[in-house]
What does this fold into?
Amino acid sequence: MSDGNCQSDVNEPPCAKKIKKDEKNDNGVAEPVLDLKDFIPSKILNNNTNRKTVCVQGNFKDKSGVALVILEKNAFKEDELDSEGYFSAESDLKTFFQNDIYGNFECFPKSSINGVKTTIIYPATEKHIAKFSQQEVHIIQETSDCYNKLTLPHIEKEQFNLQWVYNILEGRSEQERVVYDNKCEKEGFVLVPDLKWDGLTKETLYLLAIVRQRGIKSLRDLDGSHLPLLKRVRDEGKKAIFEKYKVPGSQLRIYFHYQPSFYHLHIHFTYLRHEAPGIYAEKSHLLDTVINNIEMMTDYYKKATLPFTIREMDTLFNVYETNGYVQKIKPDIKLIDK
Amino acid sequence: MSDGNCQSDVNEPPCAKKIKKDEKNDNGVAEPVLDLKDFIPSKILNNNTNRKTVCVQGNFKDKSGVALVILEKNAFKEDELDSEGYFSAESDLKTFFQNDIYGNFECFPKSSINGVKTTIIYPATEKHIAKFSQQEVHIIQETSDCYNKLTLPHIEKEQFNLQWVYNILEGRSEQERVVYDNKCEKEGFVLVPDLKWDGLTKETLYLLAIVRQRGIKSLRDLDGSHLPLLKRVRDEGKKAIFEKYKVPGSQLRIYFHYQPSFYHLHIHFTYLRHEAPGIYAEKSHLLDTVINNIEMMTDYYKKATLPFTIREMDTLFNVYETNGYVQKIKPDIKLIDK
It folds into this structure.
C-alpha cells in the first residue's frame, strides 16, 4: 500500500539481522568486510541536493561485480545542539561574509557528530542500478481521448493484482491496523495507516482510505453519482483522524494521485506540513477540489485533460512516445551550455 | 520576485559586502566576532528532517540580545566523491547491520569535507524569530463568496506595492536578466530567472513570466478572455526556455500559486524534477489545467472553490478565524498521545 520510496525500501530490508563488521555468521564464516577506502567510484547515478542524498556506482578493489554506495546526510539530532556538540570549541567556523546583522559561515563540527548514513549494495544488479539512477521524467497532458485510446487499454492489459486490497476490505489482512471502518458496500471505506508511516509521529502522519466499492479505477471514473461516497470519506476520515490523532481537518492534505499506484480508488490523508512523496501539483488532486469540480460539472473527470508524470523507463511512456505525444531526451542536450 | 524562501532570503542579503572575520570596517572598528562556542542555545525553533536544516534561538556569552543560528547540512559536492574525499582511509565506517547484499552503516568522513552551512542573525528581532519558527498551517477552502467578502477586501486593504514589477515591465530594472520579452500590452509578458535560481544549473531551473497586462490580480480574475494570453505564455515561454536552456516543455512544471505572493499575474516555470518551494497540490495550479478548466467553463475561476494554505500568524488567518472558517490549534492537543 506504499507508494514506493526507493530509499526506505533499501535501508530497511525486512527482518534485517544485526551483524557487526567482522562478526562470524552461523556457519562460522566471516561476513565480507567492505570498506569505503576500497571503493572505486565510476558514476554518480543521482544527487538530490534538497534532501542531501547521493548514489554512486562503482566497484570494490580486488572484487568483481558492481557496487552501489548511497550516502545521506543525517538530520540534526536535537541533543547535539549544545556546548558538547555543534556549539563546542571543536567546531571550526569559516566566515563567508558578514553584513549588518547577517553572517554567513561554514561550520566544521567534530567528526563524531557529523555522520553520514551509508548504504552499500553489493553485488548490485541492473535492477538496482535502474532504480537508483536519476530517471528522465516528463509531464503528459492526458485528454479524454488519450485516456480512452492509450491509457485505459494499458491499464487493462497490465491487470494489476488487487488481491491485497480485497484482503484488507474483507478482513483477511491487516485488521489490527484498521483505524476506521465503514462497512457500507456502496459508500463505505477502510482507513489504515500507510506503510510509510510509523503510526505515531504527527509530523509524518499518513493514512489511506480504501473505498469498498469495486471497479472505480481512479479519478477518471468519478462523476456525480460518487459524491455521497466522496463526502463520506472526507467527513468521516477527518473525524476519525481527529479523534485518534488529534490532528484537525484543516491541517490535513486529503488527495488522490493521478496516475495512482494501483487502480482501486483510494484517498491519501497526510499532515499538511509533511512533505510526503508525490504531493506535487502535477500528481495530486485535493479531494475538496474533486468534489467541487464534480458539483460544478458532473462529468468533469470524463471530459477534463489531466496531467500525469511518467518516467522514460515506464511502459506507458512507450505508448505515448509511439503515438507522438512525448519525446525521449537526447543525451547530447542533457547539459545547459554555460 | 522571489516567493519567500526563508533560507535564501537570509542567506543572500542584497549587496552583501564580503567582510572577513576580524577585518576592520570603513570606520576602523573591528566587526563583532561571533563564535559558536559562545552560543548558548535556548530553543529549537524549527527542525526540518527532510532538508536537514535546523534553526536554534539563543544568545552569545556576555552579549545582550537574542541570536539565531541556522544550520543546514551541505549537499554532496561531486568532486568530493573520490579517494581523497568520502572514499578515503580517513572515513571511519560504523556498521549497523549487514543482510545479504544490503549493508547499513554510518560514515564519519574527515571534517574538512563535511561542512555545515551556518547563518547567524545577531541581534535578531521578534520578526526574525517568528519567521524562523515552525508555524501552524491550515488549509482554507475559499468559495467564490468567501473570496468576495473576505479575501478581496483584505487584498485591497493591504495594497501590496507593485512598483518593482512595473520597473521590470517598463525596462527600468533587471533588463540584463530578461530571457524573453513579448511587448504586446494585452498578451505580452516578460520572462526572467527567479531570484532563487543561479541561472545556470538545469536541476534547479526556475523562471517567472510576468504578464504585461495590469489589473489581473490572480487566478481568480481569469476567464475566457484571457485564453490567448495564457496560451502565449505557455507556448512562447516553453520555446524560449528550450532555446536558451535546452529543457523541453515536457520537463517543465508551469504553474500559478494561489494565493500568490504578489497580486500581479505571474506564472512559474520550474524544472520538473526540481522540488521548488510551494509546488504542492494545495498551493500550485498547472497552467495547462487552468487553460483546460476555462475552456470547459469560461467562469470556472469565478465560481470554483479554491484551497489555499495560511499560517496562524498571517493577518488573513484572523479574517477567516473571526468569521468561523478555521480555528487556531490549542496548545494542549499539539502532540499525539503515544
Remarks:
- The first strand of chain B starts at residue 39 and ends at 48.
- Confidence is low (pLDDT under 50) at residues 1-30, 332-338 of chain B.
- Chain B touches chain A through 129 residues (CB under 8 Å).
- Residues 18 and 193 of chain B are 24 Å apart (CA to CA).
